[in-house]
Amino acid sequence: MAAILEFRHMSRQSVFLSLGFRPFFLGAAAHAALLLPLWLALYALGVHLPLRFEPLVWHAHEMVFGYTGAVIAGFLLTAIPNWTGRAPLTGVPLGLLFASWLAGRLALALGSTFGPLASLVDIAFPVLLAIWVWREILSSSYRNGTLVGAMVTFFALANAGFHVQYAIGGGYVTGYRAGLLAIAVLISIIGGRIVPAFTRNWLVAHGAKEQPRVSPRLDHLVIATTVLALAVWLAQPYGIAAAVLLAAAAAVQSWRLAGWRGFATREEPLLFVLHAGYAWIPLALTLLALAAVFPAVPATTALHALTAGAIGTMTIAVMSRASLGHTGHPLTADRRLTACYVLVGAGALLRVAAPWLPVGYVTAVSVSGLVWAAGFLGFLVRFAPSWLSPRA
User: Fold this and answer.
1) pLDDT tens-digit readout, 228-253
2) Domain containing 324 — which CATH number?
3) Domain annotation covers residue 5
4) Could you tell me the sign of the dihedral formed by the alpha carbons of 320, 321, 326, 329, in that order?
5) Which of 137, 202, 247, 363 has the fewest CB atoms within 10 Å distance of its CB?
6) Residue 103 belongs to what domain range?
7) What is the spatial distance between Cα 154 and Cα 152, in angstroms, rounded to a whole number?
8) Contact criterion met (CB below 8 Å) for 331 and 306
């Protein structure tokens, strides 16, 4: 009881650095809410900023390595201590890691001033995160996190590769695709653990007899097929080989998702959004397969199904559930939070459909980006007080 009372009287600063989800989810939400409107000002209005990259390259990097990197950090810094039984990263070390992430965002936004130094600043954060992940895994008896550690390491290497490729020749797509590979596999691994588990708990609590279908063999098949398909896509995104493997990965992903009984959870948006977010993975793989062989399907459509759709929806779903649970609030979505889910999902759908909408491409992209960002702005307003306050 004394410890609880002491915690309740912690300063706001110490509360903010008491667990990784607090600073990193706050940073991620703020970044998502600001990134799209700022990008649209650059894209549609011709606003100038002293960026490290061209505006399109900066937008691609910050969606994958800036925003998603913060979500990955916040989730793993909170989840890994539960997996390993080790103490979480808190206080000054956590603050320094968060400062490293924030420095990367500022360095790239002002990169023409700092030159190559901006890239070095940005490369540091995911490398530091990967080092921490491996330290925690190897210092415990928990070995189920090995693949997660490998993907975080690959994510860090992809970010470094993005910068190196750009510095050498001005390109970026290999590092960008590699980052997407790492994220898609992480969603497949972690989603495969938490979505059926949370669904089972909810269905049992509501007296349902049928439970989610879970098969370790199917899980392994999903991960192996997805890794193989995206590895081939990384090497050669066009052609029949990539199309066949991506379609196969989409099929096994869809089969696994169908067994999780997501439609039965539609009465609880906090849970249903996890299923909806994961559904973007097989959809994105399908669109990537089509784009590999049919020029009528733009590659950017498939990429935004993966970024705005899968990453956007799945991350807001995971962040909201983790934030509610770790701040002592009921695990249910109120109307404001549900509206945030709808906005992010609608923004993603509009962005994927943008090439075919009758309003003009620039207008469609602008509207979709503002709708998507509005969802994260609402999410930021909804949870910022919880991230800055002691557990309820």
Assistant:
1) 999 999 999 999 999 999 999 999 99
2) 1.20.210.10
3) no
4) positive
5) 363
6) 12-387
7) 5
8) no
